[in-house]
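Appendix B. Chain record.
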Amino acid sequence: MNLTVVRGRLSRPASIRELPSGTRLASLDVTANRDVDGEPADSVPVVWRDPPASVESLDTDDDVVVVGRVRRRFFRSGGMTQSRTEVEADLVLRPRQRARVERAITAAGAALDDLLAG
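Structure tokens predicted for this chain:
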């Protein structure tokens, strides 16, 4: 099972673009602190397909919780094949939306429990 939860602050405003297919794609850069003192923070690139319009209000230093999966994609650039590892978001919430965050994490945990039990 591919599942990730990231909590951190945006290091830049959300950027939105439309793909040739018509799909809207939001790109976010989340800086997540580690729970260990003195450890450097992690910069996590996040993409969110067809996000709600509220994504445009996300700005630098906004605190977010991302629930999704890790994805590595390959593309050609400059005549070479390159890759990028990022989180593909299913849901991006602000921590103050506590009930929704708890439901999303509980659902993810239940899916994990089912996997381990099966």
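Further analysis of this model is presented in Appendix C.
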